[in-house]
């Protein structure tokens, strides 16, 4: 649970009354959803697993059919992305991930192993995000800093580092939820349930995490903080406090 931070003099920093709705009305409270997006990519990524499940069922539990349908859908999605100006590198990575998952399932002869790379990826993500918080390089700060072109300047602002760290725990939570659900369904060998879970725990969970982590992030920043785009230096942070 994220606890509010106290300002000098005992005033609680970031109470609900002092946090805007994240719409960026004052230029300092931009929502993470608007900065990072993510819903469209997460939605696209949920189609191939669903296609695998449908192909597997339609083909009479055939891994070959499931793999072929999943790859075909991934190719179509990639073509649409490229037609809309998407980056070729990102499209190739997405297609390669589906192909690798299909090859793993074909090699092991277990349809549920199509979902194994996604399960392992979430395990790795949960560990990386948790470790990043411990070593004071919270991944949310790294990602937002990259998107805003700040590189590592945000680390000079202790308030931002602290806020990014607390908000990053929600991302650890979302990856952990996926690991728990995907892991249980994979162990049970339930292909259909895994296909459904990939949809339920993709863009809806990403969007919820973006909104919640944005709220926590701004709740933990001082009221007079200039915003994510303007990290303060250590000296400025001391003077402000």
UniProtKB/TrEMBL annotation:
The chain crosses the membrane at residues 54-77, 89-107, 127-148, 169-189, 201-221. Residues 1-27 are annotated as: Disordered. Keywords: Membrane, Transmembrane, Transmembrane helix. Pfam families: DUF3159. Coiled coil: none annotated. InterPro entries: UCP010219 (IPR016566). This is DUF3159 domain-containing protein. It comes from Saccharomonospora xinjiangensis XJ-54. The lineage of its organism: Bacteria, Bacillati, Actinomycetota, Actinomycetes, Pseudonocardiales.
């Amino acid at each position: 649970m994220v606890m509010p931070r106290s300002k000098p003099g005992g005033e609680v920093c970031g109470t609900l009354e002092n946090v805007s709705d994240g719409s960026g009305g004052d230029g300092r409270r931009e929502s993470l959803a608007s900065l990072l997006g993510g819903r469209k990519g997460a939605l696209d990524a949920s189609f191939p697993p669903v296609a695998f499940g449908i192909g597997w069922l339609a083909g009479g539990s055939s891994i070959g059919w499931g793999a072929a349908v999943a790859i075909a859908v991934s190719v179509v999605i990639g073509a649409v992305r490229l037609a809309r100006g998407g980056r070729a590198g990102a499209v190739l990575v997405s297609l390669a991930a589906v192909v690798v998952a299909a090859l793993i399932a074909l090699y092991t002869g277990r349809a549920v192993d199509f979902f194994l790379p996604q399960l392992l990826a979430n395990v790795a993500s949960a560990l990386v995000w948790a470790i990043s918080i411990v070593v004071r390089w919270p991944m949310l700060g790294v990602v937002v800093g990259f998107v805003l072109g700040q590189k590592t300047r945000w680390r000079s602002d202790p308030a931002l580092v602290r806020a990014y760290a607390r908000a990053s725990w929600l991302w650890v939570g979302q990856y952990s939820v996926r690991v728990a659900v995907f892991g249980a369904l994979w162990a049970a060998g339930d292909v259909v349930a895994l296909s459904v879970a990939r949809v339920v725990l993709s863009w809806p969970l990403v969007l919820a995490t973006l909104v919640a982590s944005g709220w926590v992030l701004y709740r933990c920043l001082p009221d007079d903080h200039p915003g994510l785009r303007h990290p303060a230096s250590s000296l400025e942070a001391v003077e402000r406090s």
